[in-house]
Amino acid sequence: MDHTPGPDSCAELRAQVRELTAEWRDAGRYTPRSDSWLRSFDLEFSKELAARGLIAMTYPKEFGGAGRTNVERLAVTEELLRAGAPVAAHWIGDRQIGPAILRHGTRQLQEEIVPRIASGEAVFCLGMSEPEAGSDLASVRTSAEPVDGGWLVNGHKIWTTQAHHATHAYLLARTLRGERKHEGLTEFVVDMDAEGVSVTPIVDLAGEHHFNEVRFENVFVPAHRVIGEVGKGWKQVVEQLSFERGGAERSLSSYPVLIELITETARQGDDRELHALLGSLVARLAVLRRLCFEVARAMDAGEAPVQQAAALKYLGNAFEHDVIEALRRTDLCQEPSFDGAFGQALLASPAFSLRGGAAEVLLSLIARQEARS
Amino acid sequence: MSRSQFAEELRSLVDGLAAAGSPDLWDSLVDLDLPRIGIDEERGGPGGSLYDLLVVVESLAGHGIGVPIVEASTADWVVSRAGDLADGLATVVLLDEAPDVASGTLTAELTSVPWARDAARLVLCAPGVAPLQVDLGDVSVTVRNVDNIAGEPRDTVVLTATPVTSVEGAPAYAEVRERLALLWSAAVLGAAHGAYRLTRTYVSEREQFGAPLLKIPAVAGNLARMRVQLVQADAALALAREGGAVDIARITTAAAATEIAQIAHQLHGAMGITEEYPLHRLTRRLWSWRDAVASERRWAESLGRRAADAGESGVWTRITATHTEG
After folding, report:
1. Exposed/middle/buried for residue B193 (C-beta within 10 Å: 0-12, 13-18, 19+)
2. What is the pTM assigned to this prediction?
3. Would you tell me which CATH number, out of the four given (1.10.287.90, 1.10.540.10, 3.30.70.20, 3.40.190.10), belongs to the domain A9-122?
4. Closest Cα of chain B to A259: distance in Å?
5. Of A244, A249, A260, A320, which is the active-site residue?
6. Prediction ipTM score
7. How far apart are CA A299 and CA A292, in angstroms?
8. pLDDT by residue (tens digit) across A348-365?
């Protein structure tokens, strides 16, 4: 980090985001929706944020970043999510690929990729899950064989969000087949327009296309596109998970429904049950927000708070579900529509506690840690 | 010594005293002036901060110990803000409405007065009036012993034309209520940690089907659920210590207490429901303390009403208040 944020820097950033989102919303350039960080893709909006220094915020200035803290970044991301803004184009690259390359990548890779994430040009998808490796991520079979000048990749990734829009894929592949599945994994950056990469849509239960299958057939990846150390990818992935799991998007995916609940509770007047329900949810949101802040602060101190991020994601996902369920205490839940806040959030909700680590996997990770301590 | 260093030393001091299991623990705490920690020296206390007091309350609670630390520290703090402290145990009770004081005396039946049978003085706090102090040794006072399910005194105090003195200059009702809520949040958090520690040890050592219980995935998952509740409750208390969001701490620790007590018993099996095994000392306190003074439900209702009145933007502004980011 290049500077220490003053007490007002977050407030200024918030004001900036509020102004921008209000302007775009009022001009009809986007409609707020639940789960916008995965489902609302608008490259133009991402580039607008980039131009204002609101993505790549924590990256060093020499790579196009703003040299700010994770705490400042949190102020911006949570305001964007609150506004239901179309942030899917840059979300993954900004959140975890840029930081991964900055931590482990070579200077050459940093110079090639990071400024393009910062400007909104490079759109990333995550090539982690496979048909036989979902929750058990270390079981990846996609292979990368060493060839002259680089690697030859073969394999099959699935549940790859935004692969059909992406310019680049982060890819976890096996470079060595040994006895221990956590060893011999390597992280790569792959061009989505490289020969041999093909993308097939998977339509979800809402009739929307966000997921894909991605196949790699003899795809050549130049040697300099390895992130970090060959064969040591697992440790790097685990570190990346604190960035992937510890953010505000793990609590705010159904936020538009909470907005409706607050308005409706005010309209109902003296419904004490509803007040108590809303009060509990507001308390939980405040605590989740505090946990996000603590994770951001730990990252600023150079830590990778994996366990805390897992706890946060588990709690945040439960909150996202409970917000939707709470709206069923009002009449707004009747005849849910595809374009209403409730219907959209409900249809998105099964994914909340699956993506980025299923709830059961998070619990078992936490349990293992508890058994050790 | 930094604040956190002092707090850590205080924690290990209290842990040591509590673990020794002495029946005279309260006397030892009083000798060390710990119940008055957070009251300035010029007001008759030992100094220290509210933060230190929270550490003491949390540590004691973690051992499943019920002593009048919350009540005594609060009653003395109220009195010390207005005048001199007296010896002997003081306790405090909140009333929903100002009592009818007639020519310096009060006639009333007060229920759920904590530790009244052991206390020398009672401080009554009600909205809109200065706190009142009652000498419980007065001949006009009758105390009927009543216990809560934790086995702690929550007595009925009958006052019949009992002389009361007004504590002018003492903190207002709302301030006292907030302080009690914060202290109870710390107590609940401490007991929740205690229940968790006991449970973790139990499932790590108790063998069934040829292995420790912890090897059963459902058991491990439940232990992890206890842990995430603690993560949440710890964060809520940290928030309250820094920003004064006491209602949020109260709601969050109460909810954590409920889930943790339930899982702790489930994982302990029948052993946990015996008098001999110490789990009930923690869980009966969790069940009593989570709703002490004002219930979780009341706090949630009032927070929800304020949230509805403030609208989304008001709620968001409060939650993301800048002072937590500087």
Report:
1. buried
2. 0.95
3. 1.10.540.10
4. 6
5. A244
6. 0.94
7. 11
8. 999 999 988 899 999 989
